[in-house]
Amino acid sequence: MSGETLNPTAPPRIAPRAPRLPKSLLYSIFARIGGWGLDTDAFETLRASYRGGFLGKAIAYDNRQNEIPASKIRSLRWHPVRLLSSLDRPYYYGAKKKYLDWIASRELGTGQYDLFHSWSGDCLESLRVAQRKGIASIVEIPTWHRDFAERVAPRAEPQRSGQRTPIGRWKNELVLRSERSIEEYDLATLLLVLSERAAETFRESGMPKEKLFYLPRGVDVQRFKPGKPPPIFRAIFSGALIERKGIHHLLEAWHRLNLKDAELWLLGSIHEEAKPHLKKFWRGNIRTIGFAGDVETYLSQATIHIFPSQLEGSAKVTYEAAACGLPQVVTRESGDVVRDGIEGIIVSPGDVNAIAGAIEYFYRHPGIVSEMSIAARKRVVENFTWDHFRERLLGAYEMARQML
């Protein structure tokens, strides 16, 4: 894979640097700059180019930070697509993404930029403009190759309307179909993948490895740090309570164990699909917390973190939990933060017996928990801070420029 080579025992190496950074970057994202989740990633991405002196402009749906001048960010907060907000979600969000793409493509057409960076699903027309004008382009992939992701977690795309009316044809055009992402992969100069598992899905789809650049996430190690060990064994799950993230497998495993002096915290929004599983596998030592902005408050009070996801790019919470010194029970599909037997235990997705066995192992071996806690914190401090992320990102920018 371009940029870095992964293996299960050694931390990733930062890509060799070459002095060919862009002169002016255009960045677009279907998110906000500054805030939670992807908004944080967007902010840290722009920090790299702003501090490097080559941020031309960013286009996003809001700006919630003060470090980067507002003159560098075009906020689409008051966008005209709001008039379509009564449409069903696939149509409304498709319209918003295509509006972002339209704005970015017009900006890119001014000829002021020599590098374009956006996200999969957000930038087809912009990539077409970049190709016509000979501008290097980077597309960031949030999870896996679209074809592989659909096999694990199919998206319920609306069927094409058979109406031959202008409204029927118009609604068909709003939906983001799978083929859109595939064309973006082909048009981009370089694809940013967040984990080795994600990279595999592209290689298995026939994508040349030279077109892939490994870019794991980062974490604020000052905000996320170890707390005082809890008085009892406390496992925590952090993330949306949905089947794709394995919440039903975790609940079944926890129910089988029936551990004494132990509790399970579920931190995240409870989706409808999780409610039957909560009812079926409920125990009195389970606590549902719901969504919380101060994730670190809860992670720092836990013993271990469990995240048996079936599909991720590179789950942000695995970085956050490791920074808080938590050994983790995760799947390889969750990302590359945890190495099996060093910072936690890796299980196969859907393997309830393995999840239960890993939880019980930590429950019965507090000494191992202490050892892995130290290793987990060290892992992120030495490899996955936002400084590491920005340094890697600059390597991607240089590589894209060299490939053109």
Secondary structure layout:
Elements: E1 25-28, H1 38-52, E2 55-60, E3 73-75, H2 89-108, E4 115-119, H3 124-133, E5 136-140, H4 146-152, H5 166-174, H6 178-187, E6 190-193, H7 196-203, E7 212-214, E8 233-238, H8 247-257, E9 262-267, H9 275-280, E10 286-290, H10 295-299, E11 304-307, H11 316-323, E12 328-331, E13 344-347, H12 352-364, H13 366-383, H14 386-403
Parallel strand pairs: 1-2, 1-4, 2-3, 4-5, 5-6, 6-7, 8-9, 8-11, 9-10, 11-12, 12-13
Helix pairs in contact: 1-14, 2-3, 3-6, 8-12, 11-13
CATH architecture level-2 label of the largest domain = 3-Layer(aba) Sandwich
Helix content: 25-40%
Can you tell me the number of structural domains? 2
**How many strands appear in the DSSP assignment?**
13
Query: What portion of the residues fall into strands of 2 or more residues?
Result: 5-15%
- One letter per element, helices H and strands E, the order comes to EHEEHEHEHHHEHEEHEHEHEHEEHHH
CATH class of the largest domain: Alpha Beta
Question: What do we call the CATH topology of the largest domain?
Answer: Rossmann fold
Overall 3D shape: globular
* Overall mean confidence score, pLDDT: 92
Q: In whole angstroms, how far apart are the ends?
A: 18 Å
Pick out the low-confidence regions: 4-18
* Main beta sheet: 7 strands, parallel
What's the CATH superfamily of the largest domain, by name? Glycogen Phosphorylase B
Computed over alpha carbons, the radius of gyration is 22 Å
Query: Structural class, judged by helices and strands?
Result: alpha/beta
Question: Number of DSSP helices?
Answer: 14
